[in-house]
Amino acid sequence: MAPVAAAVTRVLITGFGPFQGVPNNPSFAIVSRLPSTLPNNIEIYTHPSAIPVAYHPTINVLPDLYATAKPDVALHIGVAEGRKYFAVEAGSERGNFDLIRDIDGKNFTDAEGDAAWGNAAARLNTDIDLDSTITKWQTRTADFKWPSILSRQMSVLGALAEQKVDVKASHALSEALGEKGEDVSVAAPDPNDEVRWSDAVGFYLCGFIYYAGMVQKSVQSAAEASPQARVGKRDTVFMHVPLLLTEEEIGVGVNVTTELVQSLVETWRVQKAG
């Protein structure tokens, strides 16, 4: 008897638009190049435009986006300018989104957070098993030919300078967004890994969409309550990508992302069956 095919798993994926120091955000460049389906009965629903790097437009779009896509798994992607690797973040914290103003010159206050998220915990972690996911992801990308992303910091700075970007301000912002210690509750990453886990999502729009997305996924899961539903589960993750500049690098980013999606879905299916 032939094995029963897995049910279709739907994955929502978003990327961000430009902000200070990043006029061409590689997160949306990747999202815009993803296929609509992958092997193993995976459907990809991509938001058709870049999410603005602004708090209120981001939180306003999420309810309709999740309601329309009805994802089993959600993946939000952003850029970490100073990094030289791809990383899935463990979680995000609320209460710090008033530290840095967005591209509209606004922040997101604690009072707005209380109104939007009620009594949700100060910190939320994804409910998807990261140890399993990262192990699969590293195996799937083990034979990748990595472009020179990971050793061209000076050329990145030169490119930014040519675009008349305030490099000093850009890097100061980058440091403010995500310099936190790694969470030892997950196996420590090897510093040589091109794909890995992290716990430094930061307090800007990357951390914001991750926290808001986990809350929204919990709401969606609870609304779908049935014997088969993972009620209230935060099946949402966030990936940081390096500052990819060339088409070759964006192409690698697309391949890395599709392998992450496969890894996430495999892990999610095992968790759901369990």
From TrEMBL:
It comes from the Eukaryota. The keyword Protease applies. The keyword S-adenosyl-L-methionine does not apply. Keywords: Cytoplasm, Hydrolase, Protease, Thiol protease. One of its GO terms (molecular function) is pyroglutamyl-peptidase activity. It holds the Pfam family Peptidase_C15. One of its GO terms (biological process) is proteolysis. One of its GO terms (cellular component) is cytosol. Belongs to the peptidase C15 family. This is Peptidase C15, pyroglutamyl peptidase I-like protein.
